[in-house]
Fold this protein.
Amino acid sequence: MNRIRFFLLSVLLIMLFLSTLGVSAALDRTDLRIMGPQGFVAYINKRIPELMKEGKIPGAAVTLVHKGQILQVRGFGYRDKAKKLPITTDTVFQVGSISKSMTAWGIMKLAQDGQIKLNFPLDTYLIRWRLPDSKYDHSKVTIRGLLSDTAGIAVQKYPGYHPSKKPPTLQEILAGKRFGLEKVYVKYEPGEYHYSEGGYALLQLALEEVTREDFVRYMEREVLTPLGLKNTSFRWRSDLQPKTATAYDMYGFALPNYIFTAKAATGLYSTPADLGRWMVAANQAFLGKNQAVLEQRACQTLYTPVFADYGLGCAAEILPFGERFVSSNGANHGWKAYYGLLTQEGSGIAILTNSDRGMNLIGPIMDDWFAWQGLNRRAVVVENLPLYFLDLYTRVRRIFL
């Protein structure tokens, strides 16, 4: 009887959820396509606070790039609810897996400088640590495969560690020796797509082996500083700490700033203003106009699909009219982020939030941006499922099962 009642309640919850999707899908976005840049700015400046209130999201920021120029950078809400400190253009956020897109720039810089070959086996570059034996051919585990998540590497997601605790070393997380971590090994046939932060931990190690220096220092000197990203780092520097937003869980409780050992995969800190500068730089490098870090050919290699619509460090889709759309989302505990860029046209958007509920803002705003750009798509994000339905479903399941 309990299982029957649970089944009926589950059906009801699904119907309620689908009804919310119907309301969202019914929103008329046809007028967005004919809006000018300032009209769209005014539209989202009104819409974002409404979505934040509805989704109980404490803080957010949006950066718009239009035809190679920064159109707007603006913060909304609070970086600290208790102190009523507002989000500004220089508020620091964790950006989760957007870290991979920036790491890819560093690896491509090594390739451009002849220090690494994208199609060489990973084992060519490792000294301190080696992939454990598996049934698959390790010679097929290449740098390009790691960048595109097609190397067959285990470990989908790494946790963060409380800032008061000593985190494991890079070699310890690779070996899976502490905190119940899965070891990194070749779990799948190389060539198949399997999302893996373990692969980016290996890239972090490979970069350090090749350069004989710390990953963070190399990235700041060779990538971040030349791009003018002064408030962006793979380390929670002392100058960034006072400007860093407080993260909040789905219930609105404040979280500590968790620290990540696998920095290349998920440890980047950045600001709305810096992400705008980076998107402009990516557009210019793609067109060969600014090659301060990457030459045109190297940048275009990054944004060329390797498997389906996935490139090196980002999703990379070639649209019907030849334009390339690159994007990535980020999801650390208490943080949700997204960026998308039309590489040739130079139009893009970045959205940052300090809340586990952030995808309930990012999804609708991306739908609006796609409509404004005339792109026939919707931002299909699993985390866009209303969190109160997830919470209610979990509670019901505990009661009846």
Q: What stands out?
A: The first strand starts at residue 59 and ends at 66. Residues 231 and 239 are 8 Å apart (CA to CA). Residues 2-26 form the longest helix (25 residues). The chain is about 40% helix and 15% strand.
